[in-house]
From TrEMBL, chain A:
<feature type="transmembrane region" description="Helical">
    <location>
        <begin position="139"/>
        <end position="159"/>
    </location>
</feature>
<protein>
    <recommendedName>
        <fullName>NADH-quinone oxidoreductase subunit J</fullName>
        <ecNumber>7.1.1.-</ecNumber>
    </recommendedName>
</protein>
<feature type="transmembrane region" description="Helical">
    <location>
        <begin position="6"/>
        <end position="24"/>
    </location>
</feature>
<feature type="region of interest" description="Disordered">
    <location>
        <begin position="167"/>
        <end position="203"/>
    </location>
</feature>
<comment type="function">
    <text>NDH-1 shuttles electrons from NADH, via FMN and iron-sulfur (Fe-S) centers, to quinones in the respiratory chain. Couples the redox reaction to proton translocation (for every two electrons transferred, four hydrogen ions are translocated across the cytoplasmic membrane), and thus conserves the redox energy in a proton gradient.</text>
</comment>
<feature type="transmembrane region" description="Helical">
    <location>
        <begin position="31"/>
        <end position="53"/>
    </location>
</feature>
<dbReference type="InterPro" id="IPR001457">
    <property type="entry name" value="NADH_UbQ/plastoQ_OxRdtase_su6"/>
</dbReference>
<keyword id="KW-0520">NAD</keyword>
<dbReference type="InterPro" id="IPR042106">
    <property type="entry name" value="Nuo/plastoQ_OxRdtase_6_NuoJ"/>
</dbReference>
From TrEMBL, chain B:
<dbReference type="GO" id="GO:0050136">
    <property type="term" value="F:NADH dehydrogenase (quinone) (non-electrogenic) activity"/>
</dbReference>
<keyword id="KW-1278">Translocase</keyword>
<keyword id="KW-0812">Transmembrane</keyword>
<feature type="transmembrane region" description="Helical">
    <location>
        <begin position="61"/>
        <end position="85"/>
    </location>
</feature>
<keyword id="KW-0830">Ubiquinone</keyword>
<comment type="subunit">
    <text>NDH-1 is composed of 14 different subunits. Subunits NuoA, H, J, K, L, M, N constitute the membrane sector of the complex.</text>
</comment>
<dbReference type="Pfam" id="PF00420">
    <property type="entry name" value="Oxidored_q2"/>
</dbReference>
<keyword id="KW-0560">Oxidoreductase</keyword>
<protein>
    <recommendedName>
        <fullName>NADH-quinone oxidoreductase subunit K</fullName>
        <ecNumber>7.1.1.-</ecNumber>
    </recommendedName>
</protein>
């Protein structure tokens, strides 16, 4: 067994084990880090397969993405720090059955399917060929992905900013007072109560 | 490191991802299941590219598209989670059992 094979089996085991731990760990932050480990192990396997650019891109992308994920996990976490056991599942038997069936079916395809064996030729430069493909024949596909990402950014801002459908972005917010409990620094006092102009609002 | 072993690893990742997607109640955990499915799909695509396609660059392009899909899924997923939380104070799928109209 060669060093490449040993590295592959170790990383395959890490990828699957970490992927499984994502759904059984008690802390959602830990779950996002387990997912990061799973992605990094897959990235190493991609490097072993000579997909240098994709493996490294996966490292960078996942390192950042999982940090954002961990931040959201903290925001939406039911169970801070994983101090209590967490098992928030529904229809678990159906889900386990579906997962096992999918694994069995795809594995059957992998074992019994007949695929041609055409490995990467000697002296082939995967990154160079990918670059020529991206900025050559498949430029339309590549640019479409870029435009789709731009549309996603606009849609995300539209969905998450408070303006428009849900009212102004700063509606209901109140800047901090100049002194504790005092008037805000930049807003004039509301005048809906006429003469009570110097009344201090304590919300 | 043969094609069947690589595909079995990706099948395992996809299977775990399907379990997580179908079983988790929290939106963010559900999205981690989707990510795991895409992880397995990308591994399978790279495996086919390296071992059956003689290095045809379209195989790598497919993986890049899968990465773009993953980024879009993450961004839109988090945006929807924030929007739903803002509208209904909900962060689990059970809390959304009715449409508005």
């Amino acid at each position: 067994m060669s060093a490449v094979d040993i590295t592959f089996y170790i990383n395959a085991a890490i990828a699957i084990y970490a992927g499984w731990r994502v759904f059984v760990t008690d802390s959602m932050v830990r779950a996002s880090f387990f997912l990061l480990i799973s992605f990094l192990a897959v990235g190493v396997i991609m490097l072993l397969l000579a997909a240098v650019y994709l493996g490294v891109a996966l490292f960078f992308m996942m390192a950042v993405e999982m940090m954002v994920m961990a931040l959201f996990m903290v925001m939406f976490m039911m169970n801070p720090a994983g101090l209590n056991p967490m098992k928030m599942v529904h229809q678990e038997k159906v889900a386990i059955a579906a997962g096992v069936v999918a694994f069995a079916a795809l594995s059957a395809v992998a074992v019994f399917g007949e695929f041609p064996s055409r490995t990467i030729p000697e002296g082939w430069q995967p990154v160079v060929s990918l670059g020529h493909e991206l900025l050559g024949d498949s430029m339309l596909v590549f640019e479409s992905a870029g435009v789709t990402l731009l549309a996603t950014m606009i849609a995300v801002v539209m969905l998450t900013s408070h303006r428009g459908r849900y009212g102004d972005a700063n509606h209901g917010s109140r800047p901090p007072g100049l002194e504790p409990g005092g008037d805000p620094a930049d807003k004039p006092e509301e005048t809906e109560e006429g003469g009570h102009h110097h009344h201090h609002h304590h919300h | 490191m043969t094609l069947p072993t690589l595909l079995i690893v990706s099948a395992a990742l996809i299977g775990i991802g399907i379990y997580g997607t179908l079983s988790q109640q929290s939106f963010v955990m559900l999205m981690m299941g989707l990510e795991l499915i895409l992880n397995g799909a990308m591994l399978a695509a790279v495996s086919f590219w390296a071992l059956t396609a003689a290095g045809a660059p379209e195989g790598q392009l497919l993986t890049i598209i899968a990465m773009a899909v993953m980024a879009i899924e993450m961004a839109m997923g988090f945006a929807l989670v924030v929007a739903v939380y803002r509208a209904k104070q909900a962060d689990t799928t059970e809390a959304l059992d009715g449409l508005k109209h």
